[in-house]
Amino acid sequence: MTSSEGDQGEGAGAQRTPAGGGATRPEERLEQAVRAAEKALIEFEIAVETFRVEVENFSRLHEQKLGPMYARLEELDARILEIKAARSEDPEDRRLADEARARLMPMPGVEELMNGWMDGDGLFPEATAMLTDQPVRPPQRVRPSEEARKLYRELARKAHPDLAQEDKERARREEFITRVNAAYARGSADELRELAEEWAAGPELKHTPSPAEELYARLEWLSQRKELLTLVARNLEEGAIGSMLRLAPDDPDGLLEDIAAQLRAQVAEREAALAALSD
Question: Where do the record's region annotations for Disordered lie (predicted)?
Fold first, then answer.
């Protein structure tokens, strides 16, 4: 082979070989697709979890602020129906009055009675206060700060179980993310900072390339996980509290004030109607 032929051979080989030497592995594009799907899924899961916490916080505040007004409306409606039934002596009016009164005095089962009253350590402080006639502490309002939101997102991206390649590592990440979610639900930036330090001091993970069959299975699992999260997100958004929150995501307090004003007007109307019937 002449020197010119050798140069031509080297040139052709250079065109086939990427920078850094070695041919491109057949699984490389599939691995890139898996990494992109993992990143997208994690971001989606972070968004869903963030919205779930917002819905829970808004639900707690909604019950605390508007619950007594709804209860007052139901009581007034029941009393109005009872007076009408007593005057008309109509069986249908009596049935409606009895149903309204029954809704105010439900008869829950044992599990419903104990739900939210105790855990493995015994009665919650709120339950103890109720049973001993002590003042009941109102539900604590939790709204994570911007720092807590930022810490949560960073930890979720770094420690998400979907990034694990082995079952043992997945279990470690799942246990850690459970604590991260609990700290975020409490709105504790201090706890999240401690968890960030704990994760930074943890073992470094070594990425092991997977065979093509495992990568395909991984993509399928990620797709199924996304479908499940989509269903969770839809249920949150279409629920009563989620629907209300989406009406005013930037001013939930103002929305509650508007609803409270409407309920106060309805209570006043019912009280006037009841007074008129009682005369």
Answer: 1-31
The CA distance from 82 to 86, in Å, is 6
Among all chains, which residue has been given the structure tokens 């900072």? 193
Tell me the per-residue pLDDT of 52-73, one tens digit each, with 9 for 90 and over. Answer: 888 888 888 888 888 888 888 8
Confidence of residue 194 (pLDDT cuts 50, 70, 90): very high
Residue 119 pairs in a beta bridge with: 122
Average pLDDT over residues 213-237: 83
The model carries a pTM of 0.51
3-state secondary structure of 118: strand
> What is the Cα–Cα distance from 266 to 79, expressed in whole angstroms?
15
> E strands within the chain?
118-119, 122-123
Distance CA 144, CA 140 (A): 12
Tokens representing residue 159 in the block: 């420690």
Q: Is 123 helix (H, G, I), strand (E, B) or coil?
A: strand
Give Cβ neighbours of residue 37 (< 8 Å, ≥ 6 apart). Answer: 219, 222, 223
